[in-house]
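Researcher: I've been going back and forth with a colleague about how peptide-methionine (R)-S-oxide reductase might be arranged in three dimensions. Neither of us has a model we trust, so I'd like an independent prediction. The organism is Nocardia terrae, in case that matters for your notes. Sequence below.
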Amino acid sequence: MSSDADSSIPAPRIQLTPQEWRTKLTPDEYRVLREAGTERAFTGEYTDTETEGVYSCRACGSELFRSTEKFHSHCGWPSFFDPAKSEAVVLKEDDSLGMRRVEVLCATCHSHLGHVFEGEGYPTPTDKRYCINSISLRLHPSDSTAG
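Model: Here is an independent structure prediction for peptide-methionine (R)-S-oxide reductase. You can compare it with whatever you and your colleague have in mind.
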């Protein structure tokens, strides 16, 4: 997986000062999105959600994932096997906590979303699990009542 993580990540298109982010986000959102925190397992709003729609970045509103790529991994956080668009997220090597992981960031604002894991054996087309904090996302349900 580390070969996919690029250490020369382009600059975010949206750049705010820490104070501007604090004004825009709740303290819990700020801790996860801007300080790479993690919400507690099985507590997130979207962990088991099956609502069809688009998941956007809670910090900047950019489209990140779609419900069609969401699956139940039973890990305690929403899991996706691929982002909505290949350029929606950037990957960054993360050696914190004494282990090698790959951090997932919003490509637009570089907010922390979670981590991606590969080769865990889930029956998905990519064999990847984008393990994303619910608090990093906002679900925009599809209008299933139209028609």
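Researcher: What would you highlight for our discussion?
Model: I'd start with this: Helices lie at 18-24, 27-33. After that, consider the following. The chain is about 10% helix and 30% strand.
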